[in-house]
Design a protein that fits this description.
homodimer, alpha+beta, 60s Ribosomal Protein L30, Chain: A, 2 domains, four-stranded mixed beta sheet, 8 helices, 14 strands, globular
Chain lengths: 342, 342
């Protein structure tokens, strides 16, 4: 008769990562139950999955967010959504997720259980399966509660994908809604200011929205979810990669009053703050209004806006037309404004 | 002109995980150079890979081994070989690897560089490509130098795979060589006893050996690499999963004199100690001699032995026929004999 783990009061200990009975007990009584599916039930060191009919998309992300519970989510749901979003930004249909836990000795099993079930719920929301996993435990003081790696596999349907057409002057950049909510939610919790603000993380799976857009045969040149480093990082990466100039129109940036206030309070620039439920879309000027209209009809795109334009000038980089009519350079994040935000 | 990182004396800092300029600099100057391949060069949050002609194998493992340099290897090569081996145990051809780094602030860039190039070499040895990655940094005291997650994707060729035939009484279990070398190498280094022993880790990619065996149309019922928890863990998992009894013959266990001595010194039981270049094969009695012969002709199987038999008895579990002719139960590892061995 297997010993039942006490998920109310027990703590993670080193034996739970040692490959023996204690580890198998934890996995049997928690992960296998929460994530249950036919592939995980193979109960091997690898999952064997059906042949895919198309190119493969493959991605990985480790999550070290602190604190691991924050307004609007937790490290578990974030780890699932983050990887699903990285897959779907390529136009791939997200299918399978792997999970690697690095637990710190002393982590309450109660917290671990909550996080694992949050991952299971997020996977259900996103329509993906968690098919293989690994659990390690490090000594107290050698980790920070919990780190999670998720990797993901998806398939690309050539009939509904991004076009990868050449970026050119006049192209528009669209965002599906308000910026900076994830980062501000985490930072306000970390600074114990969450009582002063109602900002919750925007972390959510974007694959439903993306699949909807692609099924409409809209001509999307490319997409990216502006997470760490915020929209400033994504726009600068694009400017570097495509040797173009991008001009952001500050007046069009969708941002809530709460987030603006919290940013002032915390001394943060919303352009550099991570989003976990937003995507940036590049498309031609001609296609921009119809993409915008489709976005706005979707629950995750109600506040979509055209926020920037690829400029014809030869100067490479990102600039912002400010609300006062001036222009200022938007550089990469150079310092460490927001460590451990995801 | 991009600032050149000083890989001789600089340390990892938080900005290198913040999604901004410093992170991109590190990735450009180190990971992209070391791992260079056409898929990584896509330079996106996901790799797009060719369509696979067969079922997919997918696996993940996080590596937290301490110390991260040990006799015979390091956390980098271990992370590549471990995931390649998990893929090939299913009969899959290992193809693509993802890597997620969790770095602790203060890690010498010199050490990181050595580990990254060790991964690149290991990938070359194993014939796989590192196609996508992620880098996070946690504050000093919230990690332990470096943790690495690798996930892997492989394809199953139906013409050269494991048979998954039913395990039955009389079946043999074969190992490809000496046991307990990885765990003893790490533990002796950790206990500062490495000056007393020449034991080096057996960590190596097994996919070449496995592909060789499968190409010979040998009837292999199943395979597993006995890593954490040692061969005791793998045999107990099999006994549980297939409701069978397994009898190990102690006299046949291949083990070097150095490893035996080190185990005595460190108070370790070699049956519970991790291997990182060994596999256990289950096959029928009739097929066992020909599989053994093929193993022994391969560089990674010179000391292969038949070490155990599936017994006809109805008692479930693992027993060992000792060198003195008695029988003793071989249970799972119950405690934490070997934390952070991989």
């Amino acid at each position: 008769m297997a010993v039942k783990l006490n998920f109310n009061s027990a703590l993670v200990d080193l034996s739970m990562g040692a490959g023996g009975k204690a580890m198998n007990r934890l996995i049997d009584q928690l992960m296998r139950k929460a994530f249950a599916n036919e592939y995980l039930a193979q109960n091997e060191d690898q999952a064997i999955l059906p042949k895919l009919n198309g190119k493969l998309a493959f991605t990985t992300d480790s999550f070290v967010v602190s604190p691991y519970f924050f307004p609007g989510g937790d490290i578990g749901s974030l780890a699932v959504y983050g990887t699903v979003n990285d897959l779907c930004m390529s136009g791939a249909k997200a299918l399978y997720i792997s999970v690697g836990f690095i637990l710190e000795e002393g982590l309450p099993l109660k917290d671990l259980k909550k996080i694992v079930y949050s991952m299971a719920d997020a996977a259900k929301t996103a329509g993906v399966k968690i098919v293989t996993g690994d659990t390690k435990v490090v000594e107290k003081g050698k980790g920070d509660g919990i780190f999670i790696n998720t990797s993901g596999v998806g398939v690309i349907d050539q009939n509904a994908s991004v076009s990868h057409q050449k970026v050119q002057g006049g192209d528009k950049i669209i965002i599906n809604g308000n910026i900076a909510e994830h980062g501000v939610a985490v930072m306000s919790k970390r600074a114990n200011l969450d009582f002063m603000t109602d900002v919750v993380s925007d972390a959510i799976a974007l694959n439903g929205l993306v699949e909807h857009l692609l099924s409409q045969n809209l001509n999307i040149k490319m997409m990216r979810d502006p997470t760490r480093g915020g929209i400033a990082a994504t726009l600068n990466e694009w400017a570097d990669k495509y040797h173009c100039s991008i001009v952001v129109d500050e007046a069009t940036l969708p941002i809530s009053q709460e987030v603006e206030s919290a940013c002032e309070l915390l001394g943060l620039d919303p352009l550099f703050i991570a989003n976990e439920g937003k995507l940036l879309i590049v498309c031609s000027n001609e296609d921009s209004q119809s993409i915008l209209a489709h976005l706005r009809k979707h629950p995750l795109g109600g506040n979509a806006q055209i926020i920037a334009e690829i400029s014809d000038t030869k100067t490479q980089g990102v600039q912002m037309k400010t609300a006062f009519g001036g222009m200022r350079r938007v550089d990469w994040l150079t310092g460490e404004q927001l460590p451990r935000i995801c």
